[in-house]
Protein 1
Amino acid sequence: SQQGEEDPQALSIQEGENATMNCSYKTSINNLQWYRQNSGRGLVHLILIRSNEREKHSGRLRVTLDTSKKSSSLLITASRAADTASYFCAPGSTSGTYKYIFGTGTRLKVLA
Amino acid sequence: EAQVTQNPRYLITVTGKKLTVTCSQNMNHEYMSWYRQDPGLGLRQIYYSMNVEVTDKGDVPEGYKVSRKEKRNFPLILESPSPNQTSLYFCASGVLGEDTEAFFGQGTRLTVV
């Protein structure tokens, strides 16, 4: 399956702390994307990392990718209450089938 | 403004009454897709389309139909809705090819009674 599996399912931290969530997948990929979903809203793209990249930064976001372990992690540094959301990964398969497949996500709650 | 627009945002209907949820994008994207989101099950893909007149089943296509007669529109049709189709539905679009992101609509909350 092309689906990514996010872990943990839920995460609760204090404002200012770092939040780390992980994604595992099973197929070979061209890239892996992370999305955020605020409660009941559409997903919003956060960052894309290509299969030949190991780490990528965007503001307070840091994404790593380990293709040998078929896993990725998303780190949000100095979290804010506004970061409270669900986070999803979407592995981009090399199979040629072009479609975004999402898992159940990680629900992050940042306490003020 | 680049966007994916779904209508309606909220809908309550009765079992068996045909309905259509519309999705339109103004970004000239080839790729469009429908998802449903249920608690504990994440987003599951219903149907997707890679271009006009090209559609394919996702993971949960039963009970749904789609059409892609124009590039910008990708309606989701429920011919005979049932209560188990009560869900939050999202439409998404994107450029075909690698390293491109998906753009999502604001969602349609459907209740079938």
Protein 2
Amino acid sequence: QVQLVQSGSELKKPGASVTISCKASGYIFTNYAINWVRQAPGQGLEWMGLIKTDTGTPTYAQGFTGGFVFSLDTSVSTSYLQISSLKPDDTAVYYCARGRRHCTGGTCYSQHYFDFWGQGALVTVSS
Amino acid sequence: EIVLTQSPGTLSLSPGERATLSCRASQSVSSSYLAWYQQKAGQPPRLLIYGASSRATGIPDRFSGSGSGTDFTLSISRLEPEDFAVYYCQQYGTSPLTFGGGTRVEIK
């Protein structure tokens, strides 16, 4: 069965860096993009961007273009989110989610929705 | 960017009642690339609906989605105890992908 398993909670000081992993299983990793979504405490969902797992090409949403890096290790079916120069405002749960291409009438498009999610990784930034 | 506005913010209903959740987009969502997710406390979101009206695998048929253009609706025909949660709509037709602010369905 499809699973995305993320690394555990992290407590970091302001200015530090953190790397979150997202290990996929149960499907061909390079057939689906990995998206990253942030959820601040008590808040809604915010799309951070995605990484295409066949090419390694990342796309970052506005607001996540500096200090955020998506990467891959296809040999272990894992995607990574690195956040540098952490600020207290970066305190959130970070989710990875598989992007499934929207298909209708036998045609599949580049647009994709999120059909499987990791369990989330809480990053707390506090001095 | 397409802004999604969900209403109401909170819906207070009893088990067995019908829930109707609204998601309005600031501009037309191309080809009905609209999804709905359910999130319970401490859990990741779960895909319910994609393409505005297609149920995801394993989703009970009491959940239905409808709408096009800028107005979309998620309906839950008869609320079960496990349906009390927060629901988010998402448009995935235009980058950046965006989510609505959520509707909390709570027990009355």
